[in-house]
Amino acid sequence: QVQLVESGGGLVQPGGSLRLSCAASGFTSDYFPLSWFRQAPGKEREMVAVIGSSSSIVEYADFVKGRFTISRDNAKETVSLQMNSLTPEDPAVYYCNVDRFGSPYWGQGTPVTVSS
Fold first, then answer.
1. What mean pLDDT value characterizes the chain?
2. Contact indicator for 39, 20 with CB cutoff of 8 Å
């Protein structure tokens, strides 16, 4: 079955960096766009970044442009999110997502905390 497993979250100081990774299995991931979403306590889940199947198309939410970079390795079936210049507005649980034929799949999420 489809599985998405995130890793790499943790505690970082403001201005610091983290790299999140998501391992996909149970489907041919290189056929589909892959996304990162986040959800902070009391807030709706929001899209952070999406990358097309061949990496030729990437899109970012305005609040991460210039700070976060999404990438994928189709051979390893992974998608990563490099997060730089983290701010106190970035803490959330970060989720990996794939939409296959109208059905969304989510990982369990990895928490990111930004605190001095």
1. 95
2. no
